[in-house]
Amino acid sequence: MWRLDVLTQCLVGIESKVGRTSLTATTRSQIAKDSLLLRNGDVNGLKWVFSRSGVTGQIGPTGPLADELGKAGIPWRLAP
Fold this sequence. Notes:
4-stranded mixed β-sheet, 31% helix, globular
């Protein structure tokens, strides 16, 4: 079983990531599970939000992760 980091009142799921995030087996699995939530109608939408790491100062997905999110139809953004 998995859970979303945030589920808004409008049933939009938000996955929160901190720092530079790569495409790994774990993130690939999260994308697959998030896609399933969308396909099943369990959520009205999904987005991934990336925040800057206070330790490394890095932020955002690597190219391969951004590509995989795009293929899955999952939008992402950098937190201000």
